[in-house]
Design goal:
Blueprint (H helix, E strand, L loop, with lengths): L16 E7 L10 H16 L8 E5 L27 E4 L5 H15 L4 E8 L6 H9 L14 H16 L3 H15 L12 H6 L7 E3 L2 E2 L9 E8 L10 E11 L13 H14 L8 E3 L5 H10 L9 H5 L16 H5 L3 H17 L12 E8 L4 E10 L1
Parallel strand pairs: 2-3, 2-4, 9-10
Antiparallel strand pairs: 1-7, 4-7, 5-6, 8-11, 10-11
Helix pairs in contact: 2-11, 5-8
């Protein structure tokens, strides 16, 4: 049997440090182009890492696009941030909603291979320039059955079917989903980058109303992440870390797993590919879920967060609601989940999401998360997926004092 576990922290293997980062605000950014977003976060990341463009050996750009913007060849836009980036190898990667983490993991492979010592990773998406039907069509390009079709509800319809299947098998968890939405909206209040910075409260999230209609039953508007623009950037390096006031953050483990694309070939509520990726990341890091201090995970819809409670091992399968009902995933719980507000409140600019998750986890571990800060955070998990649990990426990040 193939062994997909890759230990990252062991004698003789260079440590991979998250040396610096940049992050834009997420939202409807009509005043910023794709190029401007890329340039801004790139410059932030270089400054944060205390390096110059001449130190960068490789660039990886995560950008889903699928027709959201006309430019389909944006990798060299990163070079616009500094003339000294000219001639640096730059590659665009894409893996649906896991595009950002795909870019991070691609950089990791170059670092492990020794073909680069310092890699700049940028994730970006401009979604709000496209009309609503264009956004829906672009996103459905990540689905085997609906690619190329028009849909008024897009991926919400797919996750509504997941919710229905879960309800049928384990019981209605609409109340728990409303609590997840309320939690993440409250957390988003403390995130200066978040698209939706409103504490909506449980009652609003639990009630179908004119302001919170059903988008695709049983999913209410508050069960769905917004359409957002935004960008984030990371500097990953095996070079000797620059002395800095903040603690060093290193990558301790990674895992990736792809599942079958056709929905008919997957149990809709098992998220088996997600389990495989998460298990590989924990094995790579040599840790268990109980060792983690926080997790940033892929809550594109509240039913996804609930299912992922089961995937990451917080509860048994079919009992995900227990994690929110008993308070385990709140900021003061035993494992805070999405202290950033998650995709639900922070926003979900496709190509930027996975990079953003790594940035926000690194901020927590370096003690620079501001009002989002989880006190004493030393070990963080990140989980990002593309499609309905098809492309799955997990990482474990660690503070090194």
């Amino acid at each position: 049997m193939r062994d997909w576990t890759l230990p990252l922290v062991e004698p003789g293997r260079p440590e991979i440090t998250l040396a610096g980062w940049g992050h834009s605000r997420f939202g409807k950014l009509t005043d910023q182009s794709l190029e401007q977003l890329i340039i801004s976060v790139t410059r932030q990341a270089l400054e944060s890492a205390q390096i110059t463009a001449q130190d960068v050996d490789e660039i990886v750009l995560g950008h889903y696009n699928a027709g959201l913007v006309p430019l389909a060849f944006p990798s060299s836009l990163v070079l616009q941030a500094d003339d000294d980036l000219r001639f640096v190898p730059a590659t665009r990667v894409e893996n649906a909603c896991a595009t950002g983490s795909a870019a991070v993991h691609q950089a990791v492979r170059s670092l492990l291979a020794g073909t680069a010592r310092t890699v700049l990773v940028v994730g970006v998406e401009k979604m709000t320039d496209a009309p609503a039907h264009g956004v829906g069509r672009a996103l459905l390009g990540a689905d085997y059955d609906l690619a190329g079709q028009e849909s008024g509800v897009g991926f919400a319809g797919l996750f509504a079917e997941i919710a229905k299947a879960y309800f049928e098998r384990y019981g209605d968890v609409s109340d728990a989903m409303a609590k997840i939405a309320a939690k993440n909206h409250r957390n988003g209040m403390d995130n200066p980058y978040a698209h939706l910075r409103r504490d909506l409260g449980y009652e609003f999230c639990a009630t179908v109303s004119a302001d919170n209609p059903l988008v695709a039953a049983p999913l209410r508007r508050t069960d769905c992440s917004p359409v957002s623009d935004g960008a984030a950037a990371l500097v990953l390096t095996t070079a000797t870390a620059v002395d800095a006031a903040r603690p060093r953050v290193r990558l301790r483990g990674i895992g990736q797993a792809n599942d079958f694309l056709p929905t008919s070939r997957r149990d809709p509520v098992a998220f088996a590919g997600a389990r495989a990726a998460w298990s590989r990341a924990l094995s790579s890091a040599g840790v268990g879920v109980d060792d983690l201090d926080l997790v940033e995970l892929h809550d594109c819809f509240t039913i996804a967060e609930l299912l992922l409670y089961e995937v990451i091992g917080l509860t048994e399968q079919g009992k995900g609601a227990q994690a929110i009902e008993e308070g385990w995933v709140y900021r003061d719980g035993k494992l805070p989940v999405n202290p950033s507000g998650g995709l639900k409140a922070k926003g979900h600019p496709i190509g930027a999401t996975g990079v953003s998750q790594h940035v926000l986890a690194a901020m927590q571990l370096s003690g620079t998360a501001g009002d989002m800060q989880i006190p004493g955070a030393g070990l963080a998990g990140v989980f990002n997926m593309g499609g309905v649990g098809v492309a799955n990426y997990a990482s474990v990040l660690e503070r090194v004092d």
